[in-house]
Amino acid sequence: MAELSERQQALLKAIVEEYIDSAEPIGSEVIERKYNLGVSPATIRIEMGKLTELGFLRQPHTSAGRTPTSLGMRFYIQTLMKEKQLPVTAEVSIREKMMSQRAREERLLKEAVTALAEKLDMLGLALDDNGQLYYAGAANILDWPEFYDIDVARFVLSLFDENPRLRDIIGRAQGADPIHILFGEDMEFENLRSTGFVFTRYEFISQVVGVSPKGGVIGVIGPARMNFALVLPYVKYVRNLVCEAMRG
Questions:
Q1: pTM of the complete model
Q2: How far is CA 54 from CA 42, 77, 172, 174, in A?
Q3: Mutual orientation of helices 88-99 and 228-247 as an angle, nearest 10°?
Q4: Over the stretch 4-32, which tens digit does the pLDDT of each residue have?
Q5: Beta bridge partners of 179
Q6: Residue 134: left (phi > 0), alpha (psi -120 to 50), or beta?
Q7: For the domain 88-247, what is the CATH superfamily, name and number?
Q8: CB 56 within 8 Å of CB 16
Q9: Measured on CA atoms in the order 159, 163, 168, 170, is the torsion positive or negative?
Q10: Domain boundaries, the chain
Q11: Which fold has domain 6-80?
Q12: How far is CA 110 from CA 161, 235, 238, in A?
């Protein structure tokens, strides 16, 4: 990944956070007006051009503004973003509902995906190692402009009728990171270009001797510009509760 100057990092951070809020391409005048980067509008435009050449931003055909690419989003998540602290009230309410289903795997996972869907206004899903699918909040994705395109919404919702394709997509997340982020633009499906997937693996080890560990993945589907600073801690928190509840 290319080295970015401090100024370029500050500019990229501003553009990503504006884009997360607005879903619109971001122009230099917005950055100059709202962020005190200490440089002229002309310098901002030059630096935006450089970030575009480096692959961190793209310029949609019909706009003078820029949007982050998956490379830009990954750099933001890994280097520039600070995860938010979850509200204590949210933690407590999720914990109470999930722990009430302790040791009942099916109900627990239904409660877990419902919590993610409600707190993040996205589609929450879990897929266990036996291929059993749990999801909640399918209608939530229709609140996001990215899914106003009926072909995009139809394609995402069709994943739940076609488990093999969903398993294939989830199976693309490789590596040691406990949490996986996939961007639709990095896949071959045109109708997923504006979408993002965040999920993590959960596992629980049976107290019964000779019974092998069980597990699966849990996470959310939403727009590629989802607020990762909030999404990541929620997904991690719910995953940890699933593991804890099943141990209990």
A1: 0.92
A2: 19, 17, 25, 25
A3: 30
A4: 999 999 999 999 999 999 999 999 999 99
A5: 200
A6: beta
A7: GAF domain (3.30.450.40)
A8: no
A9: positive
A10: 6-80, 88-247
A11: Arc Repressor Mutant, subunit A (1.10.10)
A12: 18, 14, 12
